[in-house]
Amino acid sequence: MKFSEFTYERPSIDGIKTGLTKLLEEFNAAGTSEEAFEVYKQYDGALSRFSTMSTIAFIRNSMDTADVFYDAEKRYFDEAGPQVAEYVQNFSLALVGSPHRPAMEKAFGKLMFLNIEIGLKTFKPEIIPDLQEENRLVTEYDKLIASAQIAFRGGTYTLAQMGPFHEDPDR
């Protein structure tokens, strides 16, 4: 399958929040490790779908920064990503404090939990506006870099098109 054939559909931020909240409740109510595993798989799948759509939007936007549709989608994910991070944080806290942690560590490895614990130290809901602003500024910078035009050897090139000249023996 070619990348151009991948289907893109904007995920609903409210739907993601509602779904992750429901899964967190189910995870906390899990009576057995098997139930906890099943809920975790659903949680991982929900995040994977969100991440996939975000990645498709990002790549298509970077392929053509003038595309109005994917420009809007990139801005959407710039805002939505930090909001979803709060729900990931809540689920991560439940995972590390779960009575099912030993069984999950056995299945997924201790490294997964070590990475989760490190990730818990890097996010607080209070920084969501800062993360959104950072995303906006990075996107603005990326567009500026992508739009740069350089006159060189009788032609006009973008920064990406200048790459082959770095390898040219006559640099």
Structure description:
- This protein is 71% helix and 4% strand.
- It starts with 12 loop residues before the first helix and ends with a helix.
- The radius of gyration is 21 Å and the shape is elongated.
- It has one domain (3-167).
- The mean pLDDT is 92.
- It has 171 residues and is mainly alpha-helical.
- The protein has 7 helices and 2 strands; from the N terminus they run ααααααββα.
- The protein has a two-stranded antiparallel ribbon.
- The protein has helices at 13-29, 33-63, 68-96, 101-108, 110-120, 128-147, 163-167, and strands at 150-152, 155-157.
Task: List the defining traits of the structure above.
mainly alpha; 2 strands; two-stranded antiparallel ribbon; 71% helix; 171 residues; elongated
User: Biggest sheet: strands, sense, closure?
Assistant: 2 strands, antiparallel
Which word captures the global form?
Answer: elongated
Low-confidence stretches: none
Task: Encode the helix/strand succession as letters.
Answer: HHHHHHEEH
Alpha plus pi helix count: 7
Q: Which structural class fits the helix and strand makeup?
A: mainly alpha
Q: Cα-atom Rg, whole angstroms?
A: 21 Å
What's the arrangement of strands in the largest beta sheet?
Answer: 1-2
Strand content: under 5%
- What is the number of strand segments? 2
Distance between the termini: 38 Å
User: Considering DSSP H and I runs of 4 or more, what fraction of the residues is helical?
Assistant: over 70%
What's the overall average pLDDT, rounded? 92
**What number of structural domains do the residues give?**
1
